[in-house]
Structures are given as C-alpha cells and as structure tokens.
Amino acid sequence: MARKSRKNQERTPLSRERVLNAAIEMVDESGVEGLSMRKLGAQLGVEAMSLYNYVANKEDILNGIVEMIMAELEIPGTQSDWRQMLRNRANALRQMFMRHPWAIQLVESRTNQGEAAMRYYDTLLGRLRGAGFATSMVVNALFFVDSYLYGFVTQQLSQPYKSDEDFKEAMGQMAQQVPADIYPNIAAMVSDPATWQGLDYDQIFDYGLELVLDALARSLSKDG
User: Which residues in 33-45 are b (16+ Cβ under 10 Å) and which e?
Assistant: First the structure.
C-alpha cells in the first residue's frame, strides 16, 4: 500500500479505521516493536494525543489490527467437505501470515477476540461438528492443524534463502565444503540433483498438510 503524502494525510479526517490501517502498514514494515503512538501519529501527520480519540492505547491498536486482518479471511462456506475447508483455511492463513509476518505472534495471543474472529471461528466449529467431530475433538483438531501451520510458517519466515538462487548457491558451497567421509548423508543430500531444484514451499506445505488431514480422518473414522 503506497503511503499518502503528508498534505493528503492532513486533509483526510482521522478515524479508527484509518489509524488501524496506518498501524498495519507500520508493523508490516517495522514489526510490532516498531509501533508506538508517537510514530503512528507522525505517520498520520497528527500529534500522538489525537489518536486517543479513536484508540485507547497500544493494546487496543494490537487488538484492532488483528481484528482487521482476521476480517481478510473468508468465512467457511458449505460448498466443500471438512477436509477441503481446513485445507482452504490453512492456505489462507499461511498467505495472510506471509503478508503480515508479525501476525503469527499476535493472532493466538489476543484474549479480546473481535467480531470478525468470533464469526469466523463459530462457523468453523459448527462445520466441524456437523462433519461428525465431537466438540472436544474439534478443539484438538484445530490445535493439531494450527501447530503444523504455525510451525511451518515460522520456519519459512526464518529461512536465510531469499530466492532459489540463494538456496542453490548455499547448496553448491556446502557440496564443496562438507567432507563426505565425516558427514556422508549430508554430502549425499547436497550432491543429489533433486536438492538443487530449489525449495518449493507450497509443495512442501501441501504435502505435510495432507498428512495432518489424513491423521484427522483416521481419528474421525475411529471415533465414529
């Protein structure tokens, strides 16, 4: 999102939505640690005190921006089975976290769930219960899927490779430096042409997600 000029900012009236959108832009660029009322006010072209007419404090801002990004998620419909629903949800959340890397630390830590999140989860829980999952198992199922999702996204965001070329260069250096007589399995991996194809995160994520969904299907079948 392109920033507005200071003159345009001054002409646009403040609102809670505008303050929260500016906060999302700020944390997308600098992380949650870079967010402050002073900096946010400066970005909007106003004094920090003016923001308190629309947000109570920084915690209120954090709750608000989580609510806004949760509203980006499409509420599950009835056109797909529970596996496809969870598949769609996992991919949508992963894409959201890649757009907003800071969100992975905040979404689950909020005790004040907004209306968008409440509607989303209520529909989700209802669909899973309707598919035959016991109420207690629904919680376990979502925790199981989300543990995989959050772990995968955290690892992907932590990777030092910014492109396939970076990855291939790192593999090439490792192939030259790793002594095969000491680390035979690592040497075999970096010498395998398949390793040099790059990291297809989408393919890897989908593979692991299907294993998770297979486990849930077996549990549902057993319980049913």
Answer: eebebeebbebbb
DSSP labels, the chain: -PPPPHHHHHHSPP-HHHHHHHHHHHHHHH-GGG--HHHHHHHHTS-GGGGGGT-SSHHHHHHHHHHHHHTTSPPP-SSS-HHHHHHHHHHHHHHHHHH-TTHHHHGGG-SS--HHHHHHHHHHHHHHHHTT--HHHHHHHHHHHHHHHHHHHHHHHH-S-SSHHHHHHHHHHHHHHS-TTT-HHHHHHHHSGGGGG---HHHHHHHHHHHHHHHHHHHHHHH-
pLDDT of residue 1: 44
Indicate the pTM of the whole model: 0.81
Q: Mention every residue, 6+ apart, whose C-beta is less than 8 A from residue 183.
A: none
